[in-house]
Design a protein that fits this description.
The protein has one helix and four strands, in the order E-E-E-H-E. By secondary structure, the protein is of the alpha+beta class. The protein starts with a strand and ends with a strand.
């Protein structure tokens, strides 16, 4: 799945693997806040869904 936000010029790809969810984010902007938030919520996501979320980008 690919999501494109024209307003913020970000592109996000999501792919489901056997034991994890790979999320790839592309942007010309600084993604520091998104990365920090992702890391903060990743353990909860894994607890609920049983899949480790992985962020690349």
């Amino acid at each position: 799945m690919t999501v494109i936000s024209k307003r913020w010029k970000k592109k996000i790809n999501v792919s489901l693997k056997q034991d994890h969810v790979m999320i790839t984010a592309h942007s010309d902007d600084d993604l520091s806040l998104e990365k920090w938030t992702f890391e903060d919520k990743a353990a909860y996501f894994e607890e609920v869904y049983g899949l480790k979320p992985v962020l690349k980008g």
